[in-house]
């Protein structure tokens, strides 16, 4: 029988299953949103605008919502965010059914749901170390990411493509149901997931934001991770913003293959999530990060050169493996390094930088694709990622960070 000291707690599984359910709906609606945008226009800049709107809230609101995650009850914030997202996708589904959907509606919903996500993600990331003992964080993050990859990238996108073919509004309706299911599961969490009254900072929000920013910047390894991931996300978002056009115009396959391509990304992500604890024990944090960066650079470069659909699926799988192995080890390290009463602020500052650049990346993807062609976006991503790795990896590969 498994020792209770090595068993992940029930409240962790409630939050994990809530995320899995929610990501299934989000994977379906995300694919459907891209297909809906491509059905409305083939202009790269216009399609990329949806990605800009979904990334902009991280730049505008992440620091403030992260501070609120340290002040408010994190459980309540999470289920209320789920309800708010359900309402917004219900509105989008109605506009599609009534024939009133357009790029403006897509952009508004993308902006609104992403704004809610800035609070939900800060609260959920801050809550996880409160639900799991520190020695089990790698395992917990591995299970968490594996589940969300399985549904959000492997099952959700094909479901979204299939459902969009049946009825364009159906994937958005499925996302409404998934958010409601997630809210119900989070309501069942019994563990206290907020900073203690003694630890909570009750000064002004601006001062609290500054405390989180200073703490993050003074931490050498987390600072290097922020710089690396910020540039990585900038470049990666450029490719994601035009990926649906890459499928249609470079690989010359039908819209349904877009979901299959994302499934290749998911299979790799699932493998990377599962392998991450093993890799960290053997290679250390710096070794895993260096390996994932090198693998990603090679895969993006080859994507710029290929026109064969199944090779593209394989390369997206390698990118998924690298990205989610990186995510697991970096998330676990953040959970180990950041004090509970600062987690919302530090995580939001981390994501303010790393996700705040996504609208810029999405816009750059559209501009580069329009000026130089779709393959140039992937080549530029490889070059930019290689350049930032040269600057940041020495701080990480030289760090003496033992696995818990």
Description:
The protein has 404 residues and is mainly α. It has one domain (10-190, 205-397): Growth Hormone, Chain: A, CATH 1.20.1250. The chain is 83% helix and 0% strand. The protein has 15 helices and no strands. The protein has helices at residues 10-40, 44-60, 62-71, 74-97, 103-131, 137-166, 170-187, 205-218, 220-241, 243-249, 256-305, 309-337, 343-356, 358-372, 374-397. Helix 3 packs antiparallel against helix 13 (343-356). The longest helix is centred in the last third of the chain and has 50 residues, at 256-305. The protein starts with 9 loop residues before the first helix and ends in a 7-residue tail after the last helix.
The number of distinct β-strands equals 0
CATH topology, which one? Growth Hormone, Chain: A
Gross CATH architecture = Up-down Bundle
Q: In DSSP terms, counting alpha (H) and pi (I) runs of 4 or more, how many helices?
A: 15
Main CATH class: Mainly Alpha
The residue ranges in which pLDDT falls below 50 over 5 or more consecutive positions are: 399-404
Strand content: under 5%
Structural class: mainly alpha
Count of the domains: 1
The averaged pLDDT comes out at: 82
Oligomeric assembly: single chain
> What is the N-to-C succession of helices and strands?
HHHHHHHHHHHHHHH
The CATH homologous superfamily: MFS general substrate transporter like domains
Query: What is the radius of gyration computed over CA atoms, rounded to a whole number of angstroms?
Result: 20 Å
Q: Based on CA inertia axes, which overall geometry fits?
A: globular
- Major pleated sheet: none
Distance between the termini: 23 Å
Estimate percent helicity: over 70%
